[in-house]
Amino acid sequence: MLSSCDGVKMYILSSIVWHSFIATLIINFIKNEKHAWYFSIASSFLSVFLACVAYSMYDETAGGLQFVESVDWISFLNAKYFLAVDGISIALILLTSLTTMIICLISRSLIKTNYKQYISVFLMMQTMINGVFCAQDTLLFFLFWEGSLIPMYLCIGIWGSQQRSLAARKFFIYTFLGSTLLLISVLFLGLKAGSFSFSELIALNLDLKTQCFLFIAFLLAFAIKVPMFPVHTWLPDAHTEAPTGGSVLLAALLLKVGGYGFVRFSLPITPDASAFFAMPMIILSLIAIVYVGLIALVQQDMKRLIAYSSVAHMGFVTLGMFGIYLIPGQLSPLAFNGAMIQMISHAFASGAMFLAFGMIYERLHTRQISELGGIASKVPYLSAFFLIFCMANIGVPGTSGFVGELLVIASFLKTNLWISFAAGLTLIISASYTLWMYRNVFMGPVAIEGDVKDVNIFESTVLAVLVACIFLFGVYPKPMGDLLDRSGQQVISQALKFKVGEKA
Amino acid sequence: MVYLLVRFSPLLEFSESIRSLILIIGATGGLFLGLIAIVNNDIKRVVAYSTLSQLGYMMSAVGASAYALAMFHLMTHAFFKALLFLAAGAVIASTHHEQDMRKYGGLFKDMPIIASTFLIGSLSLMAVPLFSGFYSKDTVIMATATSEIWGAGYAHICLMLGVMVTSIYSVRAFYMTFLGEKRYTGKVEKVDSSITVPLVLLSIPSAIIGLIMAPILGQGNWFGDAIFYTHLAKERMVDINHMLEDPIHMAIHSLSSLPFWLMLVSSLATYFVYRRGAERGIACSINFFRNILIEKFYFDWVVERVLVPSIRAVSSFFSQVTDGKIIDYTLVMGSARVVQVTAKTIKSHVSGYLYHYALLMLGGIGIMCYLVVMV
């Protein structure tokens, strides 16, 4: 029994990463589109299964890197094919497989042209994102990181709406700019350390000046992905133009890759610079929360509104992450865990809103809030689901959105009341824009003529899964907390292990 | 909310300034929200504003460290206000969803049970001695008198005036609905026992729960450790508790107190004003104040006309100017345009003619030679 368990542990990560890649290859040879759909669902169920296996075998109390796979890859650079996960990665892998499953299930009813290619783009994407979460070698990380750009670019560019080509180019070039700086800094660090693995780079001794340069390079790469203010303007365009699946994936996963990058690069490799820049980062996060929230208040396009609300909510992730430098000792895990939980819960709330919006768009073919109105009387079930997602987005207690925001706001209370206050403003602002949108779209006088069919049993099952996740993590966040806790503490201890002696 | 504040008594007891704030807000609300009820013609709105006014009394009690009295008033108020709401609802139900009191008048004969229960609720609300509202409200007013924190004097005056206001709107509502000439033109529906029985049942505690509870509360430890008092606050409560222990004596004693006479005078005055039909003249003579009250002190107006538009204007500015023009158009797309323009400019130099390249090469060689010679 033990040996078979070890065998699973040795190859579980490779199979999580590569099985969907193989599925991508196979799916293009399937003639019948319906069969291709079945196949993609099978693949996504397999990935959920594998992720659950990894979760159940992961030892939460020990934390740290587990399921290590290490093979030589580019020998003259000493770069390795090095996969391993900690609790944070496991949580995000679970999220990835769940999101892909939902996208696969729902894709058939939303996309009519080039279906096989469409679904293979998402399976490819899953490989890349899982790769990012598993890679423990920075070059390998970079490979997956860049690899995730291509499927997304194709997704927006081919299946997007009217302005798709501009949005796709903007998305690609914008994020590529950040990645270039990431590549340069990775090469610099790797050649200096003689190895590209994270553990070696973390052990590397760097003076403050070098760290600051590296931090800024990392910052650009990850801040664009998160996205933080003021490099967030690609996101509303990309979201607006992307097809439903693309929007869901963008909101639920691609933004998290940016936050994950901060956790793996900025905090442990350049701790002094992170501490040095902590206050500016917190201010940028607060600007994202308040200023971008205010912008969302006046959006006329429903998808743009949800996209801006995404930016505002991701502000909590960076806020909690860099809060650990301001918050003393015992409370700092609270801020960090809050940030991680916010990443996950935002994926549910925002991803679910995009998904439900996709169903509205498929029925009514408009994104303008002014052209919709009173559709609750036409699609009562869909409206009920959407209301729950809105509540999760606002962060009503009992939904997943509440947990992360509460932890981050509460952890700042003792350190700096004003930061808590500014972050707390989001409770009012996000309630205003979300409920304003809900009122104008679902309530009020009916603006749509003719009959609109409500969600069918299949669609409502998919939405019900998301509702279940939202309430599960809202009411009982302990499993997620346990999974993140030990690994979070390890990241914090690395992030607070200053390399330049006393803080400058 | 009152319950929450009472629960936080250990915190509040240690912050005099916060209690001052609560006291002032509570007393202001107790008086001024009651004033709005005077000018309202919707029977349900009158009862609703009266609720807000009574909540102000409870908050004042919390501010004056009389937490037990706040809970006491909360309880008696729960009975008589539930009664008033139900009675108002019964009136509305029997008049075909008419809520405007100007269209009622003289309904007493049509609905004697509803009218008498409404009267009991009103008397309790007005703090007529022996009714339950009397014990809770008068003690709250006394508590503000004994309190020594900043703003207690103001609060005491506000609550005294509030007694007048309460009597005025209660008598006004009762008179406009049940007395005077009948202005209601439609047929009055009979309500069945499913409405009248709860009304009668509620009117019993509305009348006597104060008499029953006062001696129990007067012993001073009804809430046990759930409420925290400082030593000083406890000492101040001694006199009030002592009075509560003998409710009949308290009622007799109150006949010579100021709140009772304020209540009596203002309710009689209101009654006679309406009896004489002089209310219109009075309303015209105080038109300016009346408008302020009808507009609810312009709070809604400020929110709808000032606050929301200004926030939306700021948001639009952020959305269109800072985010749209500066960040996206100028910085992001601007840098893309710079690249485009530069590329176009450079492209014109790549002509494809051999002699252009030859010339450039010659120039390059010349510069190199110059550098070699000079350095």
- Tell me the total number of β-strands of chain A: 2
User: Strands of the biggest beta sheet of chain A: in what spatial order?
Assistant: 1-2
Number of helices of chain B: 16
In whole angstroms, the N-to-C terminal distance of chain B is 86 Å
* Radius of gyration of chain B (Å): 35 Å
Report the largest inter-chain contact: A-B, 12 and 14 residues
Helix/strand structural class of chain B: mainly alpha
Low-pLDDT sequence parts of chain A? none
Q: Please indicate the percent range of residues of chain B in DSSP E strands (runs of 2 or more).
A: under 5%
Tell me, rounded to a whole number, the average pLDDT of chain A.
87
Tell me the overall shape of chain B: elongated
Task: Characterize the largest beta sheet of chain A: strand count, sense, and whether it forms a barrel.
Answer: 2 strands, antiparallel
Q: Tell me the number of helical segments of chain A per DSSP (H or I, 4 or more residues long).
A: 20
Please report which band the strand proportion of chain A falls in: under 5%, 5-15%, 15-25%, 25-35%, 35-45% or over 45%: under 5%
Percent of residues in helices of chain A comes to over 70%
